[in-house]
Amino acid sequence: MGLREYIIRRLLLLIPILIGVVILIFAVLQIIPPEQRAVIYIRNPRQMQNIEEIIQRHGLRKSAIEQFFDWLKEVLQGNFGYSVYYQEPVLKGLLARFPATVEIVIYSAPLIILFGIWLGTISAVNRDKLPDHLSRILAILGTSLPSFFFGIILIAIFVAQLKWTTIGRVTNIGLLLKRIKAGDFTSYTGLLTIDALLNGDLPLFVDALKHLALPILVMIFIQSATIIRVMRSSMLESLSKTYIVAARAKGLSRKEVIYKHARRNALIPVVTISGLLVGGMLTGLVITETVFNFPGVGNYAATAAQHFDVAVVIAYAMFTAIIFVLANLIVDILYAYIDPRIRLG
Amino acid sequence: MEKETLMEIKNLYINFYTYDGIVKALDGVHLKIKKGEVLGLVGETGCGKSVTSLSSLAMVISPGVIENGKIEFNIGDKTLDILNLRESDLLKIRGRFISMIFQEPRAALNPVYTVGDQISEVYFKHRKEDLIKSALAELEEEIKEASGFKRFILRYEISQYRKMLTNPKSLTLRFCLKMPILKRFQNRMKRIARKEMIELLKILRVPDPARVVDMYPHELSGGMAQRVVIAMALVCRPLLLIADEPTTNLDVTVQAQILQQVKELKKQFGSSILYVTHDLGVVAEICDRVAVMYGGNVVEVADVMELFKKPLHPYTQGLLESIPRPGKKFTSIPGTVPSLINPPPGCRFHDRCKYAMDICPKVKPALREVEREHLVACHLFYQER
Amino acid sequence: MKSTEKELTKGAFQVRLKELKFTLKKIRESPLSMAGLSLVILFLAIAALAPVLAPPKMYDPFMIPIPKQYVREPAPPSWENPFGTTTWQTDIYYGCIWGTIHAFRLGIFIVIPIVLIGVVIGLISGYYGGIIDEILMRITDIILAFPSLILIMALIVAFVTVELPITFTGIKRLDAAIIAIILVGWPGYARLVRSEVLRVKAEDYIEAAKASGSSDLRIIVKHIIPNTIYSLIIVASLDFGTIILTAAALSFLGLGAPLGYADWGQLIYTAMDWISRGFKYWWTYTFPGLFITLYALGWNLLGDAFRDILDPLYRRR
Lengths: 345, 385, 317
What we know:
CATH topology of chain C: MetI-like fold
Strand content of chain C: under 5%
Largest sheet of chain B: 8 strands, mixed
Number of domains of chain B: 2
Largest interface: A-C, 53 and 54 residues
Distance between the termini of chain B: 28 Å
Strand order of the largest sheet of chain B: 6-7-8-3-9-10-12-11
Largest sheet of chain C: 2 strands, antiparallel
Number of strands of chain C: 2
Number of strands of chain B: 12
Distance between the termini of chain C: 38 Å
Strand content of chain B: 15-25%
CATH class of chain C: Mainly Alpha
Low-confidence stretches of chain B: none
Number of helices of chain B: 13
Helix content of chain C: over 70%
Oligomer: heterotrimer
CATH class of the largest domain in chain B: Alpha Beta
CATH architecture of the largest domain in chain B: 3-Layer(aba) Sandwich
Number of helices of chain C: 11
CATH topology of the largest domain in chain B: Rossmann fold
Strand order of the largest sheet of chain C: 1-2
């Protein structure tokens, strides 16, 4: 019963937060003067000619409350406005670039978690010895080295000097687009690596992977620092508990005690932290995609922000907030599930 | 070593290296446990009794270091030097010939595994052969009446179990242990272990053991958890059971129940018990002999009746005096437990002792037998000097 | 009864003094924390000596001087330009030196308001509880529901396009960035202070103070604040480093300091044009990048050292 109650309570908490998120976005919108704000409602380029009409129609000079429900209606219909910089509807732009971002996330997220857990465990088990010092240096560098600087160095080495790969998603994007148009290449998933395999195109698969390698490396370097830290400290705490002494007194070997008993408990706080990891990745993507000119949603939003393209930035903020909140919800439920103390109340 | 001695700790010195200084926790501890007896180890908090008990498993909590000493343990006709055993040999002793139960039972259980999981760990670690043999016995019976497909499966199980006995490192065996369906043959062993566990819990008077086995530690009451921990310690019918204040954190009624069970267990299983406690009442209940510790030393050892009737060491006398009794004025031993970073020189009790003599701060008294089966470490009794 | 309170706090104060001395000794003993301290002191020295190390030539000392020659290509380090130049001959050395003052300035202008707002809100929320607590915590939850950089970006865009009442212009980009970071940063501190307040509130000497009739404000100031300081110090020093990384990232994305400003992130933004040539123009990104990294590293090491040192388990080891 404990779990069901917990989930229901968590879901109930979700609603006021989502409402609050929407309200906050709207409040930020209100700061922007009506002329620029009008893009939020525009669906096609023709409407751009007559901004005043949009302002009148949606009451952009009237009271905030009236505007709020009107805006909400538009959003729920899928109208996130028109991007002045990219000259296309925002939703279309986001969806088009979504798969590229997903591709980075799919490869980096598991690597970050596994690497972080592994290094954190080794660090705790060998406290204050060489592996511990090395991993702590790595963790400290991860939080001191700016991700874009790391990315730039990687580009200087691997792209410019060694010419191992190029910036962007694929070496020859023009050629790929032509092939898609000619029906020679089908996009099944939108993920280049998988699609290349499905199309039997091994060189393209390798090419796509090489272009993903550096952005993924940057993501791992920056994000794993938190996981390493949390895993290390929770492992240290776990190892100091009485049940560890009891387990050793049962005749279990050091390895069994560490990996079977201590780590299982230590992983629980790490699950909690994964929610924050999602937030960190959402932020990290913006920078990493920009550095490598990778055509994902992060790059989309960053360039738009640079040019003060209101519609894109607002829509991106809303999306990432909702994703972040949902991710935290999933993480909280997962945490309640794997900790029997909460699951069984 | 005498035939009736089970374990003997000789001259044990353990130091803890902390930032505040070196804590000289054990200062030459001598302790002898006989076969089949319950030896009480009494002392205040910080006197070193828990450290002593843990060291019999060659375990010491960091930042402690065993500086000197010898621990001898008798198994059958062999004598083992516990502190110099290889790690792999120690693992065969712990949980099997010597087990331990702890003060806070729910803390001694891992919260993310069920009771059954944790008890069966001991079975699979130390009594796997028994389980395999029982499984094979079962299989021989079942296969007599089986035919066709069922017979085929049973044959497979028999061959795997036999291999486990004869060639545990075999490649095919290891493969089968990893493959999803193939590894199911182990369920038989698990089932047998589970049945034995439940029997054991029944003996310990755990209500509804079949349900308890699937519960998680936090779902158990203090008393039940302690019974589970005791069960875990008794799986292999150990020669020595170390009980580190197992009833201190329990309700008085539950404490009484557990003590009663401990007494019965001694009769039923024949194990020796090292019962560590600070409660003299408990000692009077169940111990055969008692050792009193103070400041990292054993200061007196005697039969329990003898100790209560005729305590020799001034500290023991003070302890017995300070037991509150209706009508008696409340007394306590003057002074406080010494810091073990800078312990008092000579006898560590001399600054609180009303009989202190000139020699006490200078020379540490050795533990000597001054009457039959009654040992003391006090200069008062070394008149021959 | 007032004397009990006095005795308890005097005792607590003496313990705290001893702890402080112990802490300082531990800092001296740990190589990593000494490294962090040295880095921070080094940067402080650079900031203090900036007018000497790199005499300003423009009206606004934070605008990097551009020589009259209009050559776009960066020039390598030389006697005149110790770190070389970037696009349009902007002197990197000048940018890095004055960027140090700029970094400290950002730190102070951002961390202090964040700490103040966070402490006040956290105190009120934690001490008074009830519906005030609920409302304030919901607000912090909502702000924390956004990945921080992204909300900051949205706020900057809004602040720059806004039409302020009198001047009808927007807020300057750098100021907008500072305000945005503050608005997004205080919830973290509020939460931290609130949980510390809740922890301290449950301690016995608070009961004693209340029983002896101390007013709420007195209790807060005399008892609660001193005991929550340790965590604040740790987080604040870590944040000096984090804030710079955030500000540099914003400049890198073109949302922070304006072009030609003495801001490390801004220098790297300018260097982006040249990284396609690999190591050829290494000085355009290496020097600013090193400054950012070492600055953040210094504060991170210091904050980490504080955290380790104040961890009770570690102290007794």
